[in-house]
Amino acid sequence: ATTLGASAAQSGRYFGAAVAAAKLSDSTYVSILDREFSMVTPENEMKMDATEPSQGQFNYTNADRIVNHALGAGMRMRGHTLAWYQQQPGWMQSMEGSALRQALINHITQVAGHYSGKIYAWDVVNEAFADGGSGGRRDSNLQRTGNDWIEVAFRTARAADPVAKLCYNDYNIEDWSAAKTQGVYRMVQDFKSRGVPIDCVGFQSHFGSGGPPSSFQTTLTNFAALGVDVQLTELDIAQASSSAYAATTRACVNVPRCTGITTWGIRDTDSWRSGENPLLFDGNGNKKAAYNGVLDALNAA
Ligand code: G3I
Q1: Distances (CA, A) of 256 to 12, 45, 115, 228, 231
Q2: CB 220 within 8 A of CB 203
Q3: Annotated catalytic, 127?
Q4: Residue 65: its pLDDT value, please?
Q5: What span, in angstroms and rounded, lies between the C-alpha atoms of 203 and 260?
Q6: How far is CA 107 from CA 77, 90, 158, in A?
Q7: CB within 6 Å of ligand 1 — which residues?
Q8: Which of 127, 151, 174, 276 is catalytic?
Q9: 82: helix, coil or strand?
Q10: 135-149 pLDDT, tens per residue?
Q11: In a 10 Å sphere around its CB, with 0-12 CB exposed, 13-18 middle and 19+ buried, how is residue 76 labelled?
């Protein structure tokens, strides 16, 4: 096939992009989005500060613009994200303890409920594990409400949207030997053994110019063996070499339960790492060499 979405679909997968609502009026951007992609993640518009700017007052305006565009164009949605230590609204940043726990539960109930039936997968919890060698949880106001906060978030999301796949999403968990990877693996193993509703793990895949660690496919295989789907949720690669993108794509398509890949933006100029030219389209919207690396790897699957 000749587009990312159609090529991924040949093996039952999706190919997605992070989308910013403000760019939906850019015709070059939208034409690439509609032509190439089959899944959309809002880059910022579903985060806690965007959807609940004042406690108990929900604003879905920008997120709805993205959802309506995506569903109207036949694309599916990844929701991002219901609980994160960053991008909390000001009122939440200063909360702790049982009041924060209750506010989190209400937030998830409201937002996942609002979008129930429209979301393929939710990043229920984002980036809850610490960097470095501990393999433990990241300190945050959410973590300080009790170590069970993540499973409470997943159970709350399931109750609010029984259909969406519920994912844990993080970065620097692609290398199997990393302590952070092992920490997340043990949590997923524990959740599956106790019946906590988790369906998928998102590997953000923000890579340096060398691309993925050599163990990436092993990591995806080992998580999938726990009984969850795995997805590459925020892919970008410094300098975007075709070989690094092809290797990343192959790591996914070689794993049956790797259900799709999302790049974190469309054109280099749309990227949070724009200085590193990390995406598949240049600032003019032209396909880069990395695009063909991905397309060929999808078509070989
Ligand atoms: O909305 C305001 C706007 O009103 C203001 O004029 C402008 C001026 O700085 O800032 C705008 O907000 C910015 C927002 O992006 C929208 O552009 C925030 O300051 C900025 O912090 C925010 O950055 C986002 C970042 O998450 C927030 O942590 C990036 O766009 C987004 O790409 C990035 O995405 C994250 C994933 O959610 C999680 N994984 C890592 C990834 C990259 O950091």
Answers
A1: 10, 31, 28, 11, 11
A2: yes
A3: yes
A4: 98
A5: 11
A6: 19, 14, 13
A7: 43-44, 86-87, 126, 171, 204, 234, 272
A8: 127
A9: strand
A10: 999 999 999 999 999
A11: middle
For all residues of the chain together, what is the average pLDDT? 98
In three-state secondary structure terms, 91 is helix
- Write out pLDDT tens, residues 77-108: 999 999 999 999 999 999 999 999 999 999 99
Phi and psi dihedrals of 43, rounded to 5? -70, -35
Residues in the chain: 301
CA distances from 82 to 123, 174, 212 (A): 7, 22, 27
- How deeply is 98 buried, as exposed, middle or buried, from its count of CB atoms within 10 A (0-12, 13-18, 19+)? exposed
Atom of ligand 1 nearest to the CA of 265: 32
What tens digit of pLDDT does each residue of 195-210 get? 999 999 999 999 999 9
Task: Give the count of beta carbons closer than 10 Å to the beta carbon of residue 124.
Answer: 31
Residue 209 has a pLDDT of 98
Which among 224, 219, 301 is positioned nearest to 258, based on CA atoms?
A: 224
What is the share, in percent, of the chain residues with pLDDT greater than 70? 100
154 and 106 Cβ atoms separated by less than 8 Å? no
Mean pLDDT of 227-246: 99
Contacts of 57 (CB under 8 A, 6+ apart): none
Could you tell me if 216 and 245 are in contact, meaning their C-beta atoms sit under 8 angstroms apart? Answer: no
CB 231 within 8 A of CB 251: no
From 288, 286, 281, 287, select the one nearest 267 (Cα to Cα).
Answer: 281
